[in-house]
Amino acid sequence: MGSDVRDKISNAATVIEITLGLIILIACVVSSLGIVFTTDIQLLFSVPNYLQARLSDACLIIIGIELIKMITSYTIDSVVDVMLLAVARQMVVEHTSPLENMLAVLAVGALFVIRKYLYISHLDGPKKKRDEKKKAEEKEQEHEIEYHI
Predict the structure, then answer these.
(1) In angstroms, rounded to a whole number, what is the distance separating the alpha carbons of residues 119 and 111?
(2) Contact (Cβ atoms closer than 8 angstroms) between residue 59 and residue 85
(3) How far apart are CA 124 and CA 72, in angstroms?
(4) Tens digits of per-residue pLDDT, 34-62?
(5) Cα–Cα distance, 149 to 143 (Å, whole number)
(6) Is residue 108's pLDDT more than 90?
(7) Distance (Å, whole) CA 44 – CA 111
(8) C-beta of residue 67 within 8 angstroms of C-beta of residue 27
(9) What DSSP character marks residue 114?
């Protein structure tokens, strides 16, 4: 009975994650269309703040898409990607002091170091690796059957 309750809670959490992912995806699509159709080309080239606002909006949409990928993939790598994009957006869009810029660059550098040297791939989905291994074994069996025929 205890595993039944856990399974139901896990399934409910998955449904909520998928629902939130769909809501975020719809918001990203609507926002993308809004940016495309409401951008004034003359203002884009003549008013620097207008360009900055559009870049900020575009970066938020990209972060939203990465957030969807993070919700659906369950990997550490996708979490690092979202954090990289958030820090990069902050650096590009906001007018920050030199100290804040240095801290942002250090944060991006630390995230790259984490991704390169501290990332342990087998923590990211033993299920995915098992599925790939199972598919490879099935293909191998198919080839053996064809060879014997």
Answers:
(1) 10
(2) yes
(3) 13
(4) 999 999 989 988 888 898 889 889 988 98
(5) 10
(6) no
(7) 33
(8) no
(9) I
CA count, 13 A, side-chain hemisphere, 100: 10
- Check if the beta carbon of residue 130 is closer than 8 Å to that of residue 83: no
Name every residue whose Cβ is closer than 8 Å to that of residue 120 and which is 6 or more positions away in sequence. Answer: 76
Where does residue 108 rank: exposed (0-12), middle (13-18), buried (19+ CB within 10 A)? middle
96: alpha, beta or left, given left = phi > 0 and alpha = psi -120 to 50? beta
Does pTM top 0.85 for this prediction? no
120 by DSSP, 3-state: which?
Answer: coil
